[in-house]
Amino acid sequence: MRFSLGCSILGLQWLSGLVLARSSDSCAAPAYVPTTAEKATPFFVLNDTELQDITEWLLDPAQGLNLTDATSPNLTQTDNYIWYIEPLRPNKTDVLAYLDGNASSPAKYAHVVMAEGGKAEPDMTDNETTIQELAYWYNGVHGAHVPFNSRPADGPRNAAILPLIIEVMSSIADITADLVDMVFYGPDDPRSTAHLFTTNPQSKDGSDCLIWIPWRRNRMAYFDQPSDLYTSFDFSGSDPSLYKLRMIVYNLVVYNSVEEFRAAYESGQIIKVPPPATDDSFLQKDRLGAVRDLENRLAPTSVELEGKRYKIDEENGYVEYLGWSFYHQFTRDMGIGIFDIKFKGERILYELGLQEAAAQYSGNNPFQAATAYFDRYYGIGSCNVRLVPGYDCPYHATYLNSTWNDELGVHEVIDGICIFESDLGHPYSRHNEATYIHSSKASALTIRWIATVGNYDYLFDYSFWMDGTIAVDARASGYIQANYYRPSDGGHWGPRVQETITGTLHTHVMNVKADFDLIDTKNTFLKTDLIVENITAPWFPELGEFEMMRLNFTELQTEDEGLLPVPTNGQTMYSVINKDQKNKWGESRGYRILPGISNVHLASQNSPFMKKSGEWAKQAFAVSRQHDTEPSSSSTQQQNLPWAPPVEFWKFFDGESLVQEDLVMWINLGMHHYTRSEDIPNTIMTEAHSSIMFAPQNWGDTELAVDLTNAVIYHANENGSVVVPDVNGVSPPSCFPLTSQDQLLGVFENQNP
Ligand SMILES: *[C@@H]1O[C@H](CO)[C@@H](O)[C@H](O)[C@H]1NC(C)=O
Ligand SMILES: *[C@@H]1O[C@H](CO)[C@@H](O)[C@H](O)[C@H]1NC(C)=O
Ligand SMILES: *[C@@H]1O[C@H](CO)[C@@H](O)[C@H](O)[C@H]1NC(C)=O
Ligand SMILES: *[C@@H]1O[C@H](CO)[C@@H](O)[C@H](O)[C@H]1NC(C)=O
Ligand SMILES: *[C@@H]1O[C@H](CO)[C@@H](O)[C@H](O)[C@H]1NC(C)=O
Ligand SMILES: *[C@@H]1O[C@H](CO)[C@@H](O)[C@H](O)[C@H]1NC(C)=O
Ligand SMILES: *[C@@H]1O[C@H](CO)[C@@H](O)[C@H](O)[C@H]1NC(C)=O
Ligand SMILES: *[C@@H]1O[C@H](CO)[C@@H](O)[C@H](O)[C@H]1NC(C)=O
Ligand SMILES: *[C@@H]1O[C@H](CO)[C@@H](O)[C@H](O)[C@H]1NC(C)=O
Ligand SMILES: CC(=O)N[C@H]1CO[C@H](CO)[C@@H](O)[C@@H]1O
Ligand SMILES: [Cu+2]
């Protein structure tokens, strides 16, 4: 692969009129440098053979599971069947014994989730391959069991609930055609113009299953084509003969039956509001308007003139970059997880990765008000999409396939992950002294993936900076879930953004697990408060008492203190330190946690839709003791059990000591989405952005990038002649033309002219 810079030479010439090094050469293709992880990854994906073996073994009547083959066309919700099989992530204890000691790779287990509709009290169960109940992951009241009413709306479940929806909607098709300009006779009926969508959560504690359906046009981006019609059904239990319609709501008036709705309609009592606009061209992204001056030129891009500075072991999902190394694993639920993150050979984090992404909506109608999505349930990882080169990721990024286990197979998205190094666009450090100038380059390696979960697109970046900093960034785009526009709402749930829709106020919260292991597993969480006190000082007798600030240190003693806010005015620095590991100056080596952009949590602490299921989303940060029995802040089946979730996050905080223990931080990224007309057609990633950063805090004896050669120094010479910069032997290759303004010579002489 070769690339030519011919076009940029022309561009520079036109802009500056000066091209010093005009070269027709193209830069030689960077050599790819492979690597091999010292230890094979313990974070595996099950292959087809293994999945088949496990399935056959479970289906064997000898196991006594009475399973029906999940691929059977006759599968119903009252059968027992396998819902999905995925690798069971090995316990940290076993992985560390393998990575750090002489233990062999942890034994491989599969996590099997079964639908048990064929039992007297049907539920869903998580069991291990030796058929052990996976109870140690779940601290909720139902343990590893999910009540029938909270089960996912999979094929057999949909087949059971659909007939009643079709029956009701067909019986009022003449009315819906008139009121909302759409009809529904079933998802596959060619006459249907409405889209079927059942909202979540569908249950509170598993005792019933009550769902809401918003009726929207079945066209492009139906999320943004809502009507003002909603229906609700009671689908409790496994006997479809007991299912019933609960309500029809139109123009915010409740009708308790089809008969009541029809009677109101036929007697002219229903006040009609406009159906959704039929022109949905506003949902397209095709270019509009005059081209801005010079914007017909290609946007700037980064180049790697001397080749990649990172190495990848694809088979082991292992990466090395300027002193960093880590493994990564992709899962259906959470996408990329990063493990065993080391900098210059020392472990910083055992695990870093997304746990859950929720979105809580609001509104003056039953659909928006009842919506609280837990995207892990849909599978954030399974919504991974192929990245668009040069747009989703910079040119020359390295693409990896994402591979994970889902329902009954091995799924692979080609080029679902990208890795690239970028110039951070500012010096790492710089200074001008009278006799000395220095400046150094800053760069970072980013591993990125994108998930399109229904209407929304989430972009996740994990970045490793050359100075020991780690950054996590989440961005959002895609379609907002719009609300039907009602002038009387007064904009209280969002502004009008098109003819018949408003944006809907909602909050995104994404939980990130950061299992710090600073050198080893004995770590302490330190709060450094910047406090202000009235003091007196003998050298200021004229002042009497006056205000002065200082630092005050508090170690979190126990988990009871583990739920933490974003510090007001930045007057607290959070850090994780290892008190047994001092730097040269006697300070405990640590990493600080820098709150970034928008570390929001849920505004409502008591919403019924996220009561206990969303405990992880109710504070900015949390610190708990690591336990193999507390691997995650949420779970796949959290969605439909807001009052009795499989994982009750706050139960992790049970008074255990946090001093020189194995600590885990649970960090929230998110956005209160104050919608705006600029969300149409799609939400903008420049602003829909949240971040967190971990930076060395007395980790070294000095800054950690003193060893980098991508830095320039000018030492004054005695005779005042031209000072030749020292670039440590690193400069752009001759194939890369520089302009006169890129010249390093003369910079020293021209300071303070
Ligand atoms: C699947 O993995 C097993 C090891 O667990 C290996 O023996 C087998 O060859 C693999 N099968 C395929 C199709 O890769
Ligand atoms: C499915 O049901 C049909 C009709 O009841 C039956 O003929 C067919 O054999 C069944 N198929 C399987 C795989 O059980
Ligand atoms: C086995 O499952 C079927 C449903 O698939 C159910 O009808 C039957 O009662 C179950 N048998 C036993 C012994 O539980
Ligand atoms: C993980 O650790 C828990 C708690 O010690 C234990 O019950 C479980 O069996 C372990 N799992 C595996 C796969 O070893
Ligand atoms: C691993 O094995 C080597 C050689 O047998 C031994 O010297 C070392 O102490 C062992 N390390 C651990 C952590 O057990
Ligand atoms: C990704 O998958 C494609 C298609 O199977 C394959 O050609 C390519 O080599 C894979 N890429 C990597 C990095 O494994
Ligand atoms: C310092 O004293 C002044 C005067 O009493 C008071 O107004 C102020 O709040 C005090 N500041 C602090 C930090 O206590
Ligand atoms: C300073 O820190 C100590 C020890 O944690 C604590 O007891 C004290 O209340 C703190 N003082 C202030 C003013 O925050
Ligand atoms: C002093 O200037 C001369 C030329 O003007 C140069 O050759 C020489 O290297 C300079 N001395 C130093 C220490 O840079
Ligand atoms: C469906 C199923 O096999 N459930 C089993 C899961 O494991 C527990 C404990 O071994 C058994 O009691 C269940 O029967
Ligand atoms: Cu949003």
Automatic annotation (TrEMBL):
<keyword id="KW-0732">Signal</keyword>
<dbReference type="InterPro" id="IPR036460">
    <property type="entry name" value="Cu_amine_oxidase_C_sf"/>
</dbReference>
<protein>
    <recommendedName>
        <fullName>Amine oxidase</fullName>
        <ecNumber>1.4.3.-</ecNumber>
    </recommendedName>
</protein>
<dbReference type="GO" id="GO:0048038">
    <property type="term" value="F:quinone binding"/>
</dbReference>
<dbReference type="Pfam" id="PF09248">
    <property type="entry name" value="DUF1965"/>
</dbReference>
<keyword id="KW-0801">TPQ</keyword>
<keyword id="KW-0186">Copper</keyword>
<keyword id="KW-0560">Oxidoreductase</keyword>
<dbReference type="GO" id="GO:0008131">
    <property type="term" value="F:primary methylamine oxidase activity"/>
</dbReference>
<feature type="modified residue" description="2',4',5'-topaquinone">
    <location>
        <position position="456"/>
    </location>
</feature>
<feature type="signal peptide">
    <location>
        <begin position="1"/>
        <end position="21"/>
    </location>
</feature>
<feature type="domain" description="DUF1965">
    <location>
        <begin position="226"/>
        <end position="286"/>
    </location>
</feature>
<dbReference type="InterPro" id="IPR015798">
    <property type="entry name" value="Cu_amine_oxidase_C"/>
</dbReference>
<dbReference type="InterPro" id="IPR016182">
    <property type="entry name" value="Cu_amine_oxidase_N-reg"/>
</dbReference>
<dbReference type="GO" id="GO:0009308">
    <property type="term" value="P:amine metabolic process"/>
</dbReference>
<keyword id="KW-0479">Metal-binding</keyword>
<dbReference type="Pfam" id="PF01179">
    <property type="entry name" value="Cu_amine_oxid"/>
</dbReference>
<dbReference type="InterPro" id="IPR000269">
    <property type="entry name" value="Cu_amine_oxidase"/>
</dbReference>
<feature type="domain" description="Copper amine oxidase catalytic">
    <location>
        <begin position="301"/>
        <end position="704"/>
    </location>
</feature>
<dbReference type="InterPro" id="IPR015328">
    <property type="entry name" value="DUF1965"/>
</dbReference>
<feature type="active site" description="Proton acceptor">
    <location>
        <position position="375"/>
    </location>
</feature>
<dbReference type="GO" id="GO:0005886">
    <property type="term" value="C:plasma membrane"/>
</dbReference>
<feature type="active site" description="Schiff-base intermediate with substrate; via topaquinone">
    <location>
        <position position="456"/>
    </location>
</feature>
<dbReference type="GO" id="GO:0005507">
    <property type="term" value="F:copper ion binding"/>
</dbReference>
<comment type="similarity">
    <text>Belongs to the copper/topaquinone oxidase family.</text>
</comment>
